[in-house]
Write a structure and sequence with these properties.
single chain; 58% helix; mainly alpha; 3-stranded antiparallel β-sheet
Length: 194
Amino acid sequence: MTKRLKRVPLQLFTAPRVEHVPEHIAQAIGGAVSRYAILEHIQVHILSSLLGTKRGHGRLVLRINRPDAWVQTIKNLVRNVGIDVKPKWSGLKTVLDAAHRARNDLAHSLFIRRKGLLVTAASWDFGNEYHPEHRALYPEPKKCTRKYLRKQRLAVELAVRRIHALETRINLALGALNEKRRTKPHLDRRLQKS
């Protein structure tokens, strides 16, 4: 059974655009987007640590910025390196996905006035659950209230905390593994002959 999406009335997109959003909305959007940049920075650091490369190479890997692909990549790298960090992978994917959606909604929205309220036309980035032939012509609009902005910021903040905790566990595990290899010559790959 196909899922039918609500169509947004055309009057919504013929409403006047807001060229300059109010200061408190601009600050909330800027805060969430800048915190998301920190999240991406930590993700790059985790990738480069597990790959044993420079951060620039980790940044290239992060170019495909889908949370599910990133979590799967980290999961495989952790398994291949042989460390145990014990994260809840499904919970991490959910948190990163919520932060990614929040950032997209805030950074790629069109703000318009409709009946005196500031409305965002949301992100044009559809999730994986929709097939191209089932997409609505227009995304579902959301009222841009303080509650909405706070919810988006909290989604990003939760992701930053979770990814920072994962970074700490990975760094500790890699440090212990390097120390073990340093003190036991038969584990040191540099001393083994090809």
